[in-house]
Design brief:
The protein has 433 residues and is mostly beta strands. The chain is built from 2 helices and 23 strands. It has one domain: Porin (Beta Barrel), CATH 2.40.160.
């Protein structure tokens, strides 16, 4: 949902602005809220938002995602929102092992078959393939003039992964509806059943020529985790042109948090790999985040700026800056977008381990929990159509640059790129009617 291009903000426009930030609050908990402007245009009619997105990394993962969301207003400002998401992922993903100046051979995560990695290249498992179906539903209704409640359900299924969730939020308006306070709650249950079973954490991988893993390398066929999210937020209309939102969220995750497909290389003093071990992460995680967003309507343009700071007990700290600037262009608009993300490494992140070191309690070489910088640069072009319909196109460039958090690279590891950048192209077409 976006701001409309108008010369000035009237009172109802300020209300729509607040609805947009309320939507941002609900999205943190997986709930959805209706598009206020659309419901006013066609009362008691279904409103649809559809999108088709392409995400393609250079020589790595490719994803195609389709989304259809529907919202219907009933009597007394009650809304039913439904959303269906289908995506397909294929390509190659890094398994965590270090590159070497010789050809390496790895067993597949399932234990069935092997794959070879050329000299000097980052080990990538090219069997990555999955399809996901996700369904979300929410019901929003006013309790009184100033109170609104929203409840929702979530279900997602992949080949080896199941996620179920529920959520609820309550908002309270003050100050002639210029101030809104929100509290939200969400709970999720996730279960993973990887092909080949759950690997034994920190165990040495078997000989890659072995066609099947024995019981010493597996601890079960499946595992699970639970997540509890809590959010507190306040939205404030500053004046006829500006609105601001501030949220605090807390997330507590317990259960299986290790990636069963990631491994870590054990190297000697020359940097030569001696063997690989399965990664192991803590079985709990507590995350905190603070989110601030401001929208300001100039004479004809709109700027949308947000900042998020996240910290957790894995010692991952991150900063996210996001800015969008909508500019009228003929009968449509163009919206440049810039996003910058920086992250510190988890306390158990190590790009490799030394074979003479004491075995760590937890370790992961997954660059996603390592130190990194990333940015997204692109734009969106939208064309408002008759009867409140809109067609829009978005194209963006994404680059992620992993960094060495301070580890000395022995021997041959200085000759290879252990912190390879990831580049991706994002394209999306959306139609609302």
């Amino acid at each position: 949902m976006e701001l409309a291009n108008q010369p000035r903000l009237a009172k109802n426009k300020a209300k729509n602005l607040k609805s947009l930030l309320t939507a941002a609050t609900c999205s943190l908990l997986g709930t959805t809220v209706p598009a206020n402007g659309q419901s006013q245009a066609e009362e008691n009619q279904w409103q649809f938002d559809t999108a088709l997105m392409y995400y393609g990394e250079s020589d790595r993962v490719t994803a195609v995602e389709g989304i259809i969301a529907a919202t219907k207003e009933f009597d007394d400002e009650e809304f039913l929102s439904l959303k269906l998401t289908i995506d397909s992922l294929t390509g190659a993903s890094a398994n965590g092992a270090v590159a070497q100046p010789y050809v390496q051979t790895f067993a597949r995560p399932s234990g069935k078959g092997t794959f070879a990695v050329p000299s000097g290249e980052t080990p990538l498992d090219d069997t990555f393939k999955d399809t996901r179906l996700q369904v979300n539903a929410s019901w929003t209704r006013p309790l009184t003039t100033d109170y609104t409640i929203s409840t929702g359900l979530h279900a997602s299924k992949e080949y080896d992964y199941l996620s179920l969730g529920l959520n609820a939020s309550l908002t309270r308006d003050f100050n002639k509806k210029n101030t809104t306070v929100a509290i939200g709650f969400a709970a999720f249950y996730d279960e993973i059943e990887p092909e080949g079973g759950i690997p034994n954490p920190l165990a040495i991988l078997p000989n890659p020529q072995t066609t099947a893993f024995d019981d010493s390398h597996r601890i079960g066929s499946s595992d699970n985790k639970t997540t509890i999210d809590v959010l507190l937020g306040v939205t404030q209309v500053i004046n006829r042109r500006a609105i601001m939102q501030l949220n605090y969220s807390f997330s507590m995750v317990d259960g299986y948090l290790t990636d069963p497909f990631k491994i870590v290389s054990s190297v000697d003093e020359l940097g030569v790999t001696q063997h690989q071990i399965y990664e192991k992460r803590p079985d709990s995680r507590q995350k905190h985040s603070v989110f601030w967003q401001t929208k300001y309507h100039f004479t004809s343009t709109v700027v949308d700026f947000s900042y998020r700071y996240l910290w957790d007990d894995w010692e991952i700290n991150s900063h996210t800056f996001d800015v969008r600037y909508r500019i009228p262009l003929g009968t449509g608009y163009i919206e440049p977008h810039l996003r910058y993300y920086m992250q510190e490494a988890a306390e158990f992140y190590r790009p490799f381990i030394n074979q003479d070191d004491v075995s760590p309690s937890y370790v992961s070489a997954d660059y996603r929990v390592g130190e990194m910088n990333a940015y997204t640069l692109g734009f969106k072009y939208g064309m408002p159509l008759k009867n409140g319909q809109e067609l829009s196109f978005r194209i963006e460039y994404y680059q992620q640059d992993p960094e060495n958090p301070g580890y000395e690279l022995p021997g041959v590891l200085q000759e290879v790129d252990l912190f390879e950048s990831v580049e991706a192209l994002i394209a999306q077409i959306s139609y609302s009617f």
